[in-house]
Amino acid sequence: MCKDKTVVKVGIADLKIVTPPDVIRTSGLGSCVGVVIYDSIKKVAGLAHVLLPDSKSTKQENFNRHKYADTAVSILINELLVNGGRRFALKAKLAGGAQMFQFTSSSDSIRIGARNIEAVRNQLNEFHIPIVSSDVGGNVGRTIEFDPITCQLKVRKINQEEIYI
Amino acid sequence: MDYMKLSSMQLDVLREIGNIGAGNAATSMSKLIDRQIDMQVPSVRIVSFDEMMDLIGGPEELIVAMLFRIKGDAASTVYFILSIEEAENLIQKITQDNNFSLSADENTNEIAISALQELGNIVTGSYLSALSDFTGVNMQPSVPYLSIDMAGAILTAGLLEISQVSDYAIIIDTSISSGLNERIHGHFFLAPEPKSLDKLFDALGINDHV
Fold first, then answer.
1. N or C terminus of chain B: which is more exposed, having fewer CB within 10 Å?
2. Active site amino acids of A
3. Contact status, residue B132 vs residue B200, Cβ threshold 8 Å
4. What is the ipTM score, two decimals?
5. Number of domains making up chain A
6. Alphabetically, which GO biological process terms does the record hold (chain A) (predicted)?
7. What is the pLDDT of residues B2-48, one digit of tens each?
């Protein structure tokens, strides 16, 4: 079987699953966090682009559950299990959560990046999923791409060398 | 207010708001760099967050953006967006240094960055004061935040408040550009928070109260 490799793109507040030979990518992470969860033996991976930390703060009745860290992580895990991932084998990699602007106001948007990271970490802890590596914080945007075969997460930043974590 | 339920009259008013703001901004920019500045007819778009990134070339596009948060009755976010090339062009005009380059190295010319920030401040300031005069609504802009990075990373920073209440943003998009052979071309994005729309329409006496 010879299928062409395609790049599965994940938008803002979106979540998708990928299997080889495809790779999965999300672009322009700022304060958002890209969470990759994968099973390295079964070669299945999922990526969620989380925008906000806590769904309790929503003012919508029917909100997009992929938008918030506390709801997206559990959906991502379920999707992986449905697609052949094994609960005990799941591992995670994270990127994003930057602070793009030093806002001085007292609103919620302060430290949103840091709060996103914290919320995602809490969720992963709760499901006992180890975080293998992460590239978070700072004040730069990131584009990330994960290959379920190599289980490497490629992180690209403006004016910097690409790194693999 | 549900973005999808806006009447065509209300959309027209938002377009006019963009028109007045950007018209004023174009005038002050024209004075600043001593060139003629043209502006396009504004468009009002209701877009998902992904679509918003696509308006300026996708989430990974490298942009120079100035962001202002507006407090007061009409809480919103204003962006003044330039491409790297356009920003360099502008800085070269203002500082009269034709070799200036933003991407050259990390210790970029402080004066140039400061000039760019000041330009953004003046131009966006005139955009907002025109808006405030027209609507009679109290607007308090923050200091300008300048960033040079991926569009997705920068634009979402201004969407956080909106994203708590909606999966869409309403964008009043106006472009300004200088003469044909000089490529300076900027975008103004005004993204009002949903509750601010009611305030704006009330102030202008066209709220339907559906």
1. C
2. 32
3. no
4. 0.84
5. 1
6. chemotaxis
7. 667 778 888 888 888 888 888 888 888 888 877 788 877 778 888 88
